[in-house]
Amino acid sequence: MTAGRIDQWMSYYDLNNDGVVDPQEWAYRVREDRLQQLVANTDADSDGQMTAAEMLAAGHSPEQVTTEDPLSAPFVDGRPADSALSTPPP
Fold first, then answer.
1. CB 56: neighbour CB atoms within 10 A?
2. How far apart are CA 18 and CA 22, in angstroms?
3. In terms of Cα–Cα distance, which of 4, 72, 11, 89 is closest to 38?
């Protein structure tokens, strides 16, 4: 891995630019990436939103969403609620 690639990685994951990636920053990006992947795989009409019909057509069911699901973790303003990040994500 090159130094430039490491810099790209850090700028993506280090949301508050303090030089380290803490668990909250890592979790935010992983959740964000998973959510984008879910929308891309479910949003049949590509309008950026998922309807109940699209979710069912994609094979998702209400039973799949549980409190253990990382995507259902508490968020405030689109960020992990327990995060002490000082700057909003890009």
1. 12
2. 10
3. 72
How would DSSP label each residue in 46-83? -SS---HHHHHHTT--GGG--TTSGGGS-EETTEETT-
Amino acid identity for residue 59 in this structure: G
Q: What is the pTM of this model?
A: 0.49
Decide: 61 and 71 in contact? Cβ < 8 Å: no
Token representation of residue 27: 């979790």
- Residue-wise pLDDT tens digits, 10-27: 998 899 999 999 989 888
User: Cβ–Cβ contacts within 10 Å for residue 32, how many?
Assistant: 14
Q: How many Cα atoms are found within 13 Å in the side-chain-facing hemisphere of 66?
A: 4
